[in-house]
UniProtKB/TrEMBL annotation:
GO terms for biological process: transmembrane transport. It comes from the Bacteria. This is ABC transporter permease subunit. One of its GO terms (cellular component) is plasma membrane. The chain crosses the membrane at residues 21-40, 74-101, 113-140, 146-169, 190-215, 248-269. Belongs to the binding-protein-dependent transport system permease family. InterPro entries: BP-dep_ABC_trans_perm (IPR050901), MetI-like (IPR000515), MetI-like_sf (IPR035906).
């Protein structure tokens, strides 16, 4: 009887493991297949793209990439996206670090109300804000400029960064700061030399989220940017569509190129992402 129970237990374990691996394989295929389809489509000629869909390439070509790099406008759009995304990330992390620290460590009136306002500001749909923001940027003479676009992007990146960093800062024991202050550190010194280093994984994760949001944003850029030399990468991809016929080859090639910086960033910082996603979930 004991041997029969052991056999049943072993069979259940094997079945459970097989089901787990099957689910992981299906999840991996569902995630990777669109990327694979995007890459192979970017390497096809138009006549091959509009044929019966196939899962492989018969005659690979770089024609679509040559079309994008031919006039240099798409390269300029990639550089504009890098400038905007990096600037927004740096400014957002710098300001939100002070804001989140003050809400976690200091006690003052309306602190909870301000925290809720920050969350509501992030949850407000962009579609409700782009008209007021475009009018404001026009009145400030900042329309159709990367600087104005950076200011607008900060309106949604700052609330998110502040809200997320609060959880990471709460996970840093208050006693470490008190010990540092006994040793002569000021509040600012404790933040810079104790809290920020201990929250590095969380800050890295928030930085990646902020960079990704700024890099992929299209609606606000579509409203604010009109000059070709000021376009960002998503905006340049949008303007590739000039008629009812979609240029799938150049579109997929541009999507591949636009995805490379994000893929590289996530690949390099994946260790920090794993730590950062769990850093603020446990206090102490």
């Amino acid at each position: 009887m004991q041997n029969l129970n052991s056999l049943r237990t072993g069979a259940n374990v094997r079945i459970g493991a097989a089901c787990t691996y099957l689910a992981l394989v299906l999840a991996a295929v569902s995630v990777l297949f669109p990327i694979y389809w995007m890459v192979i489509t970017s390497l096809k000629l138009p006549r091959e793209i509009y044929r019966m869909p196939s899962l492989w390439i018969h005659n690979a070509t770089l024609t679509n990439y040559k079309l994008l790099f031919g006039d240099g406008q798409f390269v300029a759009a990639i550089l504009n996206s890098l400038i905007v995304s990096v600037t927004v990330t740096v400014i957002s992390i710098a300001i939100s670090s002070f804001a989140a620290y003050s809400m976690v460590r200091f006690r003052y009136r309306f602190r909870g109300f301000i925290g809720k306002l920050i969350l509501f500001a992030y949850l407000t749909p962009t579609s409700l804000l782009f008209i007021p923001l475009s009018i404001l940027m026009a009145q400030l003479k900042l329309g159709n400029s990367l600087f104005g676009l950076i200011l607008v992007y900060l309106t949604f990146s700052l609330p998110l960064s502040t809200w997320l960093l609060q959880g990471y800062f709460r996970s840093v024991p208050r006693e470490l700061e008190e010990q540092g202050q006994i040793d002569g550190l000021t509040r600012l010194g404790a933040l810079i030399r104790i809290v920020l280093p201990l929250s590095a994984p969380g800050i890295a994760a928030v930085s990646i989220f902020t960079f990704t949001g700024a890099w992929n944003e299209l609606l606000l850029a579509l409203v604010l940017i009109t000059s070709e030399n000021q376009r960002t990468a998503p905006l340049a991809l949008n303007y590739l569509i000039t008629s009812d016929t979609l240029p799938w080859g150049p579109l997929m090639a541009g999507a591949v190129i636009s995805s490379v910086p994000l893929m590289f960033l996530y690949f390099v910082a994946q260790h920090f992402m794993v730590q950062g996603l769990t850093a603020g979930s446990v206090k102490g």
